[in-house]
Write a structure and sequence with these properties.
By secondary structure, the chain is an alpha/beta fold. Helices cover 57% and strands 11% of the residues. It folds into 2 domains: 78 residues, Methionine synthase domain (Methyltransferase, Methionine Synthase (B12-binding Domains), Chain A, domain 1); 121 residues, Cobalamin-binding domain (Rossmann fold, 3-Layer(aba) Sandwich), CATH 3.40.50.280. A 5-stranded parallel β-sheet has the order 2-1-3-4-5, sandwiched between helices. Strand 1, helix 5 and strand 2 form a beta-alpha-beta unit. Helix 5 packs across helix 9. The protein is globular, with a radius of gyration of 17 Å. The model has no long low-confidence stretch (mean pLDDT 96). The chain binds cobalamin (B12). The site of cobalamin has 40 residues, from helix 3, helix 4, helix 5, strand 3 and strand 4.
């Protein structure tokens, strides 16, 4: 792991910000730093899982990530904002799940490339996804999920879109930690990824096809 990931695991905000600045000055792509920070948070999660860290530490790590993301946001816009794609995406973290750090990065990345993003926030119930698709008529629906329990919510949302006759009008992209641990054929999404850049590249292809 790099210095940024190490600093996150050490819950050291100053070291995380210093490592971020140092890497940016050395020309590192800001999205590579998001990935590195994500790796650090995975270790934080493992420490929480095995009882070495508690909720307090999880929250501290999330705060540090947010401070780092504040520094990275303008750099992401600078480095990845060149292309202008038109289209609309509805995105949200599924019901019962309040993790949004990853979703917010995906949102920034889409917005800086000209995509209109309707962000439903966190803990988004199935009906709200369906209503938003009916109201805004997006080409793409994005769902973020990090909890094991969220897998069934994603499935439920896709089935509800199908039942409402809306499934064929949208492409569905799912992301977030738990997505890396499941077989997408269970969900039937058009794309499942834990890489924001890959996700947004595919979404752009859909929007320009
Ligand atoms: C930070 C964190 C928190 C923070 C969240 C702050 C916030 N505003 O999001 C806080 C402290 C609030 C929190 C709370 C909880 N957490 Co938590 N948390 C984490 C942690 C450490 C990091 C998650 C994270 O933000 N990663 C960084 C981001 C950038 O990564 P990402 O979300 O994967 O996003 C990237 C990609 O996936 C992709 N992406 C994301 N979304 C989308 C969407 C689309 C469409 C696309 C294309 C791509 C995409 O792009 C992003 C950038 O590359 C994880 C550990 C882990 N392994 O993930 C645990 C973890 C997810 N949490 C866990 C748990 C258990 C909880 C709590 C239940 C704890 C508790 N007892 O209260 C609560 C849940 C509350 C709830 N109802 O949701 C468990 C989940 C276990 C499970 N499998 O169910 C984990 C895995 C920790 C662990 N190992 O035990 N948590």
């Amino acid at each position: 792991m790099g210095k940024l990931a190490d600093a996150l695991v050490a819950l050291d905000k100053n070291a995380a910000l210093a490592a971020t600045q140092e890497a940016l000055q050395a020309g590192t792509d800001p999205l590579a730093l998001v990935n590195e920070a994500r790796q650090g948070l995975e270790v934080v999660g493992e420490k929480y899982d095995c009882g070495e860290f508690f909720l307090m530490e999880l929250m501290r790590a999330a705060q540090i990530f947010q401070s780092v993301a504040q520094v990275l946001t303008p750099k992401i816009v600078e480095a990845h904002g060149g292309v202008k794609t038109s289209g609309k995406v509805v995105i949200g973290t599924v019901a019962g799940d309040i993790h949004d750090l990853g979703k917010n990065i995906v949102k920034i990345l889409m917005e800086c490339r000209g995509i209109e993003v309707i962000d439903l926030g966190v803990d988004v119930k199935t009906e709200r996804f369906v209503e938003a698709v009916q109201k805004h008529r997006p080409q793409v629906v994005g769902m973020s999920a990090l909890l094991t329990a969220s897998v069934s919510e994603m499935k439920k949302n896709i089935e509800a879109l199908e039942a409402a006759g809306l499934r064929d009008s949208v492409k569905i992209a799912v992301g977030g930690g738990i997505v890396g641990e499941i077989d997408n054929s269970v969900l039937g999404a058009d794309l499942a990824t834990v890489d924001a850049n890959e996700g947004v590249r595919q979404i752009e292809q859909w929007l320009t096809a």
